[in-house]
Each structure stands twice: as C-alpha cells, then as structure tokens.
Write a structure and sequence with these properties.
- Helices cover 44% and strands 15% of the residues.
- By secondary structure, the protein is an alpha/beta fold.
- Helix 6 packs parallel to helix 7 and helix 8 packs across helix 15.
- The model has no long low-confidence stretch (mean pLDDT 96).
Length: 325
C-alpha cells in the first residue's frame, strides 16, 4: 500500500482522488471511489441545489468512508456552500476563483479545505484561504483549466506551498501517471476523465463510448461550449473537450457564434436532451489515449493503486550502486 499525507489525512488505502466533475461525479460514483479506498468527490458544478440535495444524500447513504464535494468558486454563493457543509462532507474543494471567502466558511465548519490551482498566483491565494491540500492542475486536464503543463507545474507548486501537501492533476489516468505524480513531490493524483468512463458516472453512454476510441489529438481547449450554454467563465479558464461538429463549426468563430446565439442555444439544448455528442460537449483530458473500456470505479481505484506500486518498485531497481564501492 502507498502511504502519503493524503492517505493519512483521510484514511485512504490509495492516493487517488475523484475529480468533482459537474453533473458527472454524482453520489454513487463518489461513494464507489471512497469505498475502494480513494477519496470520492461529488461534482457540485454551478450550484444546482436540488441536484446537490439528491446526490449528497446518495453518497451519505452509500459509504461510511471519507468523501467530499467540489464547487466552482466563481459560481457558488453562501447558500450553496452552507448546503454542502450541512451534509457534513470530510472535504470541500474550491476551484476557479478566489477561495478565501468560502474557505473561511469551510474552515469554520471544521471541514478539510482543498483548493485547485493552475498557477503560482492561485497557489498563493489557496495558502491565504487556509487550504489543507492544494491540487496543482495542468492544462492536459479535461474540462476547465489553465495553461501550465502538469510536469513542470506540480513541482513548482510543491516547492511554493511546502509544507502543505499537493495533489497532481492533468492527464493522469493510470498507475504510471500516479507513480510519476508521486515522484514530482505530490501526495496523490486527482483524476477525472478516467472516471468519466465508468458505469457509475452520470454521463450518456454515447459520451463514454467516445472516450474509449478518442485520441489526445482529438481534444481542444475552447470557449464555445461555455458560450452556447450561457456560462460566463473567467477568460483565463478554457475547457478541454473532444472535437465534434459543433467545435468544427464555431471554434475560432466566437464572435459569429455570439451573433447567432439564440437559435444555436436552442439547438444545443435539444441536442443535449437527445444525448447527441456530435453537437454537445464531452469534456476529456489528454490522457484519453489510454482509456479503452468502461471499467467499474471501484475496480479502477484498486488497479491504479496496484499499478503505481509496481512502477514505484520497478523504479527503485533502476538505481545502480557503484560496484567498485
């Protein structure tokens, strides 16, 4: 078993954290990850109170292990944060925005605070917010993120925020990625795209099938899906998704999309209702190359942990002692 400050903090048997993917990481997926020894996170997204009520009840009734909730900081408000805290999660993760205001509420409730950052400036704000853990998210990640690559970002954040433990995110989908993250100084890995392709994920079957056959070259960082859905994301955060017909038509033509927004939004909503992945978003990271099947979330946690142990042990054999000594 791999032991880190992350596993010690939450009593985990695997240093794996489920990314709180909005409308995908529901209560059953979070519980499955937690029950398998990782840290399951419910994706609170844009703060849909009825959705949260249902999914928080599911995770509470489905696991006795530690679990948490993730919120989009700029889209949250006091009422949503208080609703989440009332469910008594073991951790709340704040992403994409200044975490200091809501961080105080989380700290006051005696809940662990996790802050996800994409750069050094965000890491400094996380420190000021009183973060117990910091996620360093590289641009390879699916969904919204920044511009820094995972490999150089993680050790830079590790050094900056020490002794606060760091979790790596961005393009990590298997035990090799987890082992690499640990060697960069992280205490675990946060994974989203790999858990998107699980039976427990709240995503259309068509979207999961696309992840199984997609390649990293088929992903793109874009704003068009936020634009058509009416979400005012900060300009520094684009979203990585699979290319499809909608991307081919509108990526790079955002001004024209804005002029045609009303009919395009109606068409998008109809396509979403029908599960049409040619016209609607499937968030996906660059690690999608390594996803070839839809695997049970619990089995996935166990396999990733087992693979990471094997690669860490293999790595130790690469160090050769001077025979002359």
């Amino acid at each position: 078993m791999i032991g880190t400050r992350l596993t010690d903090m939450f009593g985990l048997s695997a240093p794996v954290v489920l990314a709180p993917m909005g409308a995908v990481s529901g209560g059953l997926l979070a519980a499955a990850v937690s029950n398998a020894g990782g840290l399951g996170m419910v994706g609170g997204g844009y703060g849909d109170a009825p959705w949260l009520e249902r999914e928080l009840a599911l995770v509470r009734n489905s696991t006795r292990k530690c679990w948490g909730v993730g919120l989009i900081t700029w889209a949250a408000d006091d009422a949503i944060v208080e609703q989440v805290l009332a469910a008594r999660p073991d951790a709340v993760m704040l992403s994409f925005g200044d975490p200091r205001r809501f961080g105080r509420l989380v700290n006051a409730a005696g809940c662990r605070l996790i802050c996800q950052v994409q750069d050094r400036e965000g890491a400094q704000l996380a420190l000021e917010a009183g973060a117990d853990l910091i996620v360093a998210q590289g641009t390879e990640a699916g969904g919204h993120g920044g511009e820094r690559a995972t490999l150089p970002l993680v050790p830079a954040i590790v050094d900056l925020v020490a002794p606060i433990p760091v979790i790596a995110a961005g393009g990590i989908v298997d035990g090799r990625g987890l082992a690499a993250a640990l060697m960069l100084g992280a205490h675990g890995a946060l994974m989203g795209t790999r858990f998107y392709a699980t039976p427990q994920a709240l995503a259309p079957a068509a979207a999961k099938r696309r992840l199984m056959v997609a390649q990293a070259e088929a992903t793109v960082r874009t704003r068009v899906f936020d634009q058509v859905r009416g979400y005012s994301w900060p300009t520094r955060h684009t979203g990585r998704a699979l290319r499809n017909d909608f991307v081919a038509r509108w990526h790079g033509r955002e001004r024209e999309l804005q002029q045609a927004l009303e009919p395009q939004r109606s068409a998008y909503q109809a396509a979403a209702a029908n599960g049409d992945c040619d016209k609607t978003v499937v968030w996906a990271g660059e690690g999608v190359d390594l996803i070839t099947d839809v695997e049970d979330a619990g089995a996935l946690v166990a396999r990733i942990a087992r693979e990471a142990e094997q690669f860490l042990m293999f790595g130790s054999h690469l160090v050769r002692r001077d025979r002359a000594g």
